Amino acid sequence: MNDTNTAAAPERRNLGLLVAAQSLGGASPPIIISLGGLVGQQLSSNPSATTLPVSLYQLGLALSTLPAAWLMHRMGRRITYVVGAMMGALSGAIAAQGIAQSSFEMFCIGTALAGFYAACVQSYRFAAADAAGGDSARQAQAISRIMIGGLIAAIIGPQVVIWTRDSLPATPFAGSFYSQAVLALLALPFVALLHLPRAQTKVVAGEARPLSEIVRTPKFIVAASAGVVSYGLMSFLMTAAPMAMVGCGHTVGEAALGIQWHVLSMFVPSFFTGRLINRFGNRAITSLGLVMIGAAGVLALLGLDLFHFWGALILLGVGWNFGFIGATSLVTECYRPPERAKVQALNDFLVFGTVAIASFGSGQLLHTVGWNGINTGMLPLVAVVLVLLGLQSRKLRDASN
User: Fold this and answer.
1) Which stretches make up the Major facilitator superfamily (MFS) profile domain (predicted)?
2) What is the spatial distance between Cα 24 and Cα 198, in angstroms, rounded to a whole number?
3) Computed from CA positions of residues 56, 233, 346, 275, in that sequence, does the dihedral angle turn out positive or negative?
4) How far apart are CA 31 and CA 155, in angstroms?
5) Which residue from 3, 213, 249, 369 has the highest number of Cβ atoms inside 10 Å of its Cβ?
6) What is the pLDDT of residues 236-291, one digit of tens each?
């Protein structure tokens, strides 16, 4: 009993530090996403480039997953996370200076650099799973707990925007990006105190399979597909929904309230998602999440009233939570200890690369095919992944009999 408590103490400590770091680091994206377009309108002479800062942030996140994984492999997670937080502080300062100097290019550099910090923050969920050891039940609980930090971040980020956007009257919005830098600096002590397990690359290097072999395994294909579809569709629809709502005659305030409900629904289920996975299995909860994402699309197709938009956004948020946490849990089953860094990095590259593409293309696709066309087009993607999950679950049941 005492040995168990002694072993669990570092795990609880690391988890608490990661939740705190997630709460602070996860507050940066809401600042960039909510203000990036407004600052783009203010600084750019080209109307079509106004959302470029947000798209570059998403692209920076996708492209940073592999370099961040390399640093984790070479120097460990703690040092990489410290570098990430410092990069987050630098990116906020550069973006704020871009506003102060009326330089659209400098502002874009700042938001793009923020992508590296975001890649580190996104990997906190895998760090929590690794710290939980090989127990799949504890891993699912740890991943779910980290997402609670996302709920706190979803509150901190918008409040920082409200409190600081006009704090420097001569340079509107610059105060919010200086605050983004401060949040990253506040996260530094938490990540610096982490004591996370190192990958066993030197001890069991001979057991590591080539990445090309791992990506062809059915487990990885299903896990990555579930993560890509869950996060990609959520990001795509969340980005398009406010524009669609305003285009259908709803107010900007109503659109903002819908996004607020959506964000809350994304993270509130994290209080119990881990327990649901432990009880029903990660494939069942991932499938439930995808079904809810599909249901969001169906509800959106039934009408254009406020109820249809808000209801779809709430379903989309809960579906993302179940689908993404479940898919993350599935990824942890795809690798051996010496393989985890490269597999986790590839998974996040695929997921956030898709999000970056969605960020660049959502506005154009909304203009081309409309809100109904977007929701109709997402249903086949959901169906394909559900079929893959069903076939894999059936195969595992047959193997256990």
Assistant:
1) 219-401
2) 24
3) positive
4) 11
5) 369
6) 888 788 878 888 888 867 877 787 788 889 888 988 888 899 899 999 999 999 99
Give Cα 384 distance to the centre of its chain. Answer: 22
Q: Is residue 362 within 8 Å of residue 236, measured between CB atoms?
A: yes
Distance of CA 341 to the CA centre of its chain: 17
Check if the beta carbon of residue 184 is closer than 8 Å to that of residue 88.
Answer: yes
Nearest partner of 332 among 78, 142, 130, judged by Cα: 130
Structure-token pair, residue 113: 């650099």
DSSP string, 89-106: HHHHHHHHHHHHTT-HHH
Name all domains of the chain by residue range, CATH numbers in brackets: 1-195 (1.20.1250.20), 208-401 (1.20.1250.20)
Helices and strands, number each (H, E), in the chain: 15, 0
Task: Give the Cα-Cα-Cα angle 225, 226, 227 (nearest 5 degrees).
Answer: 90
Confidence class of residue 48 from pLDDT cuts 50, 70 and 90? Answer: low
> Phi then psi for 27, rounded to 5 degrees?
-80, -15
The closest of 46, 161, 22, 155 to 108, measured between CA atoms, is: 46
φ, ψ at 151 (rounded to 5°)? -65, -45
Inter-CA distances, 1 with 4, 6, 7, 8, 37, Å: 5, 9, 10, 11, 55
Q: Packing angle between helix 270-280 and helix 282-301, nearest 10 degrees?
A: 120
Planar angle of CA 88, 94, 98, nearest 5 degrees: 145
What angle do the packed helices 28-43 and 77-100 form, to 10 degrees?
30
What CA–CA distances, in Å, run from 31 to 41, 163, 303? 16, 12, 31
Phi/psi-derived region of residue 215, left when phi > 0, alpha when psi is between -120 and 50, beta in every other case: alpha
pLDDT above 90 covers a percentage of the chain that reads 44
Question: Which secondary structure element, helix H or strand E, spans residue 85, and what is its range?
Answer: helix 77-100
Rounded to the nearest integer, the mean pLDDT of the chain is 87
**Which residue from 371, 348, 350 is spatially nearest to 116, judged by alpha carbons?**
348
**Among 345, 323, 340, which residue's Cα sits nearest to residue 222?**
323
Whole-angstrom CA distances from 214 to 60, 74, 126 are 25, 21, 18
pLDDT in tens, 122-151: 899 888 888 776 677 788 788 888 888 888
